[in-house]
Specification:
It is built from 6 helices and 23 strands. The protein is of the alpha+beta class and about 400 residues long. The longest helix is centred in the first third of the chain and has 31 residues.
Length: about 400
């Protein structure tokens, strides 16, 4: 009898807690559940999608280099969009997430770098968080992404809506969203047919828009049933890279060597944003100048010497390879000149990393990469190869955070 009574009490408690939930779910299901509407693909759907992008200033979004937001006060993001890299923070975890190649990503617990399976799981969690939470920020701008199907739908109140289906990509391919618009073509809300929700056709608002510093329009809040999805302080910033020019100056310092008093030390400084290259020319006893290159960064009012690689993002690897290939081709061409053969035999061609090169800026808004080999002074004329690039052509190589307005 005692056991029977205990079982009845347990059963009563279960019913007490689950029955209201079941009734509430049933109410929501019958009130909101809808079948996925049938739409028509083609030019009309593309026109409707383009109209939405135009009203949101899609060009400004494309030119936005940096986005920052906090999803539901839980996950914080610093998205360097033009680098396709995002810093993801939650609880005591952080991940430097490389979206093109997650194998380059790094995961941390506090200040500790994670390795092995723990790192893999943390990076995957950050990827899933990013896929979901960034969608709530920039979903309208994804309507022409690869693998997206667009259909035009006529609603019950005889208005045009845009049905978007993601056939690939993200964490949940196959999801569909029906966008609804105001009279100007600006999104007001969408309905969702997604794998993670048991009710099809639920609505979420897209009405709390702000215009960011870059000009892109982004949401700050969504309402889903009685739930609020806060996006925190939303930032969208464009890099000031294109407006920056190099500023160079040269000065001469008296040579302390009495035998070279007529040949001063030459120092050339070239500033590019918060970076500065210093080239120091010192004469030898034949009055020939030899040049030393150093790179500095100004940060928080202090000037610090840095390695070359600290100025660039991971894309620099492709340029590093190109410079080495060009350098090798340069010496192969020189090898066809018989009178240079003796000097060339002293050079053992090797691959140079970006940190093993010498880098400087010049007054023509260019950056110079130089590969130098240590050989006898008699062969100085072929000891190095110089590679010059216009700074406007290599914006994608620099870290976005160093050029935010």
């Amino acid at each position: 009898m005692k056991l029977k009574r205990i079982l009845k009490i347990i059963g009563g408690v279960i019913v007490f807690f689950t029955l209201p939930s079941l009734l509430f779910f049933g109410f929501l299901y019958f009130k909101y559940n809808e079948d996925l509407p049938v739409g028509e693909q083609g030019a009309a759907a593309d026109v409707l999608a383009t109209r939405m992008l135009n009203i949101l200033n899609h060009d400004a979004y494309k030119a936005t280099d940096y986005l920052e937001w906090t999803f539901k006060n839980r996950h914080h993001y610093k998205w360097y969009k033009s680098e396709n890299r995002c810093e993801v923070y939650w609880k005591n975890y952080s991940v430097d997430l490389f979206l093109n190649d997650t194998s380059e990503s790094k995961a941390y617990h506090g200040e500790t770098l994670l390795n092995g399976e723990q790192a893999t799981e943390t990076i995957q969690k950050a990827t899933d968080y990013f896929n979901n939470d960034s969608f709530w920020l920039v979903a309208p701008y994804k309507v022409f992404n690869e693998g997206v199907e667009r259909r035009i739908v006529t609603t019950k109140d005889n208005k045009q809506a845009l049905l978007i289906t993601y056939t690939s990509g993200g964490s949940t391919p196959g999801d569909s969203y029906l966008w609804h618009f105001d009279d100007n073509g600006k999104p007001t809300h969408y309905q969702m047919w997604v794998s993670i929700l048991p009710i099809n056709g639920l609505e979420a608002s897209w009405s709390d828009w702000i215009t960011t510093e870059s000009g892109a329009q982004l949401p700050t809040f969504h309402k889903l049933l009685f739930l609020g999805l806060e996006m925190g302080e939303v930032k969208g910033i464009k890099s000031n890279y294109s407006s920056i020019k190099t500023k160079c100056g040269t000065k001469e310092i008296k040579n302390d060597n009495p035998e070279l008093i007529d040949f001063p030390i030459i120092i050339k400084n070239c500033r590019f944003n918060n970076f500065e290259s210093t080239t120091i020319g010192s004469p030898n006893y034949t009055s020939k100048y030899y040049w030393k290159h150093e790179l500095y960064k100004y940060e928080n009012g202090e000037k610090t010497k840095i390695n070359n690689s600290q100025m660039f993002n991971s894309n620099i690897k492709s340029i590093e390879q190109m410079i080495n290939d060009e350098s090798k081709a340069h010496y192969e061409q020189l090898s066809r000149t018989p009178e240079l053969k003796e000097c060339l035999n002293l050079i053992k061609i090797k691959y140079h990393t970006i940190d093993e090169m010498e880098i400087s800026f010049n007054e023509n808004n260019e950056i110079e990469f130089q590969i130098t080999y240590e050989i006898t002074a008699a062969c100085d004329n072929i000891k190095s190869s110089l590679h010059i690039m216009n700074l406007k052509d290599i914006e994608y190589l620099f870290k976005v955070e160093d050029f935010l307005q």
